[in-house]
Amino acid sequence: MNTATSAALSNTSVHQRLDTLRLEASKVILDKSKEVDLALCCLIAGGHLLIEDIPGVGKTTLVKTLSKLLNLGSARIQFTNDLLPADILGSSIYDSEKKVFVFHRGPLFAQLVLADELNRATPKTQSACLQAMEERRITVDGTTHDLPEPFFMIATQNPRQQIGTFPLPESQLDRFLMRITMGYPSREAERKLLTGESRLDLVDDLKAVAQPTDLIEMQRAARLVHASDSIVAYIQDLVGQTRERLPSGRGLSPRGALSLINAARAWAFMQKRAMILPEDVQAVAVSVMSHRLNPNDDLTGDTGTRWSEDVLAAVRVD
Asked: CB 3.0 to 4.6 Å from 57: which of 66, 182, 262, 274, for a disulfide?
């Protein structure tokens, strides 16, 4: 173990804050510890998250909970089919007194942006997010503006078979580090939802248990988690299987391979480990791969999940 990794992982205060985050989130998001952990893993890995499911299962509540607990400056954008790129990015407005155009920032200039029902917007508006997701900056009228640090987009997506949705193109899907689904709650959890306090009230009452600087510290520590030669080979074997087993052009790209190792590093960090183990890769693999492997004609997302699980089962761990 190198000195930097040892120092990062011996900082118990960082992991204590992380444990508190998980505990407080579980009080609002019932019976979804794996989904909460995957969402936190995505943020620690520095990636964007896509949450796909039917309306009403807690997608937006999860995002608001993480925003409050991490004290992130947040903005919510409700995507509709009449939303324009300027409504997201901002626009230049002429100042008649100064006789110059002044750029007025849009809601994208936040540390955590909730893109609610992203696939209800037209492809033109969806594509307005591409530069921000990839470069953490946007260019308007020839001028480039940096976005705040940290910057994350968490997008919710309704099932594509629902009326009024537009499929996200592969180029945009690939910019999401991970995709998760919330699913229905268990009977016990649903009973608590029906008889307990409103989730919205619980979110409003939440207090920050960490700061954006803590999250940045977690990201730096996660990047120091060691990936051995055997782990790199295992990830390459997984990626290779997607290229061999799936139709031409459907396999994971190099960016997909990088996403897999970065997510595995973050997951290992969350388990207080100094190096990636195969189970860390397996814990995040389906969330990293499924949306990248799903064919356009599958409106449910099940095919990408099934292919991801098949690839995991086919590759032996040495």
From this structure: 182
